[in-house]
Design goal:
Blueprint (H helix, E strand, L loop, with lengths): L2 H15 L1 E9 L1 H4 L12 E6 L3 H4 L6 E6 L6 E6 L2 H12 L4 E6 L5 E2 L7 E10 L3 H14 L19 H6 L3 H20 L10
Antiparallel strand pairs: 1-7, 2-3, 2-5, 3-4, 5-7, 6-7
Helix pairs in contact: 4-5
Length: 204
């Protein structure tokens, strides 16, 4: 192996070391399990991307979409969204800090979302990556302080005490409407594309 090749391998290994993992919900499952995610699979790969749908951004300006690869069209489709408790931080982690977030479906056992609006969610095991360790440490701190999958406010019969404290919790009341609005827009776009024989169907 040449010195240059060895150096490149070392750099790649160093970058791979800069990551942390966390169990985080994919919210809106009560909607997507009946539309674009009817056959979710254990261990299925997911990626997190900045939302581009205006209907979604009207509800959460920092919305981050959970996406899977469409098995037929080979493009990526939205099947959920990250909790709003951390969406703002994930948004900037990806957009301005060059971070990457991807992972797998951790379990197919869904639960009620611990937010006032309700809805369903399933757990993802996400991996946060960044070349800069300090940036990654900041992100890790935000996730740990603002979100905890193991907390289930509804199971304890009360409002959320950790996930979505204060203002962010109040904003989360639109979560269910958020998912419904996204699906409604997707259906509208699909209907329009059907009217044009030469159009390409874009799912999300």
């Amino acid at each position: 192996m040449s010195p240059v090749s060895g150096e490149n391998t070392s750099k790649r290994q160093e970058e791979i070391m800069n990551f942390f993992t966390a169990t985080i919900a994919s919210r809106g499952y009560h909607v997507y399990k009946n539309t674009s995610w009817t056959n979710a699979r254990l261990g299925e790969e997911v990626s997190i991307a900045l939302e581009t749908s205006q209907a979604s951004l009207d509800v959460d300006p920092y919305a981050c979409a959970v996406k899977i690869k469409n098995r037929f069209y080979k493009n990526y489709i939205t099947v959920g969204h990250l909790p709003r408790e951390i969406s703002r931080h994930v948004h900037f982690f990806i957009k301005t800090e060059g971070g990457k977030v991807h992972g797998t479906v951790k379990s197919l056992i869904y639960r009620g979302s611990p937010i006032p609006a309700g809805g369903l969610e399933i757990p993802l095991m996400l991996r946060f990556e960044n070349k800069d360790k300090e940036t990654l440490d900041f992100m890790h701190g935000f996730v740990n302080s603002l979100y905890d999958w193991d907390y289930d406010g509804r199971a304890n019969g009360g409002d959320s005490e950790r996930n979505g404290e204060g203002e962010e919790n109040a904003e989360s009341e639109d979560e269910s409407d958020f998912s419904l609005a996204v699906v409604a827009q997707e259906n509208t776009e699909d209907a329009r594309s059907d009217d044009n024989e030469n159009s390409v169907i874009v799912l999300d």
